[in-house]
Amino acid sequence: MTPDEAIEVAHVNQPNEPDGWSSEAQDVGIRRGNSVSVTPDDYGNPVHGNILAWTADEIVIQHEDPSVGKVNLHFPRVGFDVASVEKEAA
Fold first, then answer.
1. Which of 14, 20, 54, 83 is 20 to 30 A removed from 29 (C-alpha atoms)?
2. DSSP H or E segment with residue 75
3. Which of 37, 26, 32, 49 shows the shortest CA–CA distance to 80?
């Protein structure tokens, strides 16, 4: 699959709603649907979205991009930091 084909597949399909929620998320004040940033703990830029799942192994956020629409991004728990972010007023 080419990059353009992958973008088209993402654009015409809707992501599913993942399961999984750890009490660890609530312990740090994050709830399903909150706006968060996910950032590698050693380098890189944050990615923003609404958190859908937090398990012992992964974080899943829904991210929206003009080129593909809504996509679910999966990050491993190890090596990434998650923080609540304030949504900007429209």
1. 14
2. strand 69-76
3. 37
> Which tens digit of pLDDT belongs to each residue from 45-78?
999 999 999 998 999 999 998 888 889 999 999 9
Name the token pair of 7: 């973008």
Which residue segment(s) compose the domain that 45 sits in? Answer: 3-84
Residues facing 48 on adjacent strands: 37
Question: Phi and psi dihedrals of 22, rounded to 5?
Answer: -100, 145
Phi/psi for 8 (5° steps) reads -65, -40
**CATH of residue 77:** 3.40.30.110
